Amino acid sequence: MAANSNFSSLLQNLKLEDPWLSSKPWESIKSESGVISNPKSSNSDDSKQPLYKPSMISEVGLVSLVVNALQGVEFTLRSIEKMSEMFCNDPADRTKFRTPSLWNRSLSSCSLGKILKSIGRAGFIAFLVRRFVEHLRSSCSLVNQAFSVAMVRVLEGYVSAIDTVCSSVELRRSSKMVDGFGGGCLTNVANSEITLIEVYLHTKELRNHIEALGNICLLRNVSVAFSTSSSIEDLTAEAIKGFCDFPRGANLLTYLYTRLRS
């Protein structure tokens, strides 16, 4: 009960000021609802009452959360962690949480949980790489400091690529070039019509790249544990302890050369 209450409050906090979408879960079908209808009361007012209230969260809200999580925003990573855990651990249909457009695409709760976990893992790596860069900047080795500058450039490119997702989706949808698209994904995601599935598919290569960067920074073991029994705080503390084991100076050059060859 407490878990469902926390999950409902989490979804309530995601509500954005956008048009409501009416939900049509499979239980609204009389043959699937499990309720035996009485012919005498078929015309009563009670039979016309909807099973569910208007949707509590739009897909726009979830897409906005995911885009922020991909950038490594810590509080959104916590939300993604909780949501993915809830969906993955309870594979039953969760239309009672009223996320309509997702279910219209025939996504099971387990599939949705895996999608959120994959996105959250990539965002968590981006978050850890930023912490890793801060650690390298305090290093006495000029090689490590130069490596940190390179990491910053890679992260800037990663965020810039996320900003092009909306334009990429619009171009894929249209058979012609789209003229006058209003800005990037980071500033206009709340006004866009892109779906969670489109964000997931269009960021696949980006997520692969940021995971490869995490492997170079020796963050793989920590990132794989995202949305498991360990919390983000515990995983972050574990990663920070491992920063001290990262090669320095000439050893870093040897390490990078070895990784490049492999």
Helices and strands in order, then pairings?
Layout: H1 2-13, H2 30-33, H3 59-70, H4 74-89, H5 100-104, H6 109-137, H7 142-162, H8 165-173, H9 185-188, H10 196-202, H11 204-216, H12 220-224, H13 232-243, H14 250-261
Helix pairs in contact: 3-4, 3-6, 4-6, 6-7, 6-11, 6-13
**Bulk shape:** globular
Mean pLDDT: 74
Q: Give the radius of gyration.
A: 22 Å
Distance between the termini: 50 Å
Order of helices and strands: HHHHHHHHHHHHHH
Explain what you see.
By secondary structure, the chain is an all-alpha fold. The chain has one domain (2-22, 56-261). 61% of the residues lie in helices and 0% in strands. The protein is built from 14 helices and no strands. The chain has helices spanning 2-13, 30-33, 59-70, 74-89, 100-104, 109-137, 142-162, 165-173, 185-188, 196-202, 204-216, 220-224, 232-243, 250-261. Helix 3 (59-70) packs across helix 4 (74-89), helix 4 (74-89) packs antiparallel against helix 6 (109-137) and helix 6 (109-137) packs across helix 11. The protein is globular, with a radius of gyration of 22 Å. Residues 16-37, 39-56, 92-96 and 102-106 have low confidence and may be disordered.
Write a brief structural summary.
This protein has 262 residues and is mainly alpha-helical. Helices cover 61% and strands 0% of the residues. Residues 16-37, 39-56, 92-96 and 102-106 have low confidence and may be disordered.
Which properties best describe this structure?
262 residues; mainly alpha; 0% strand
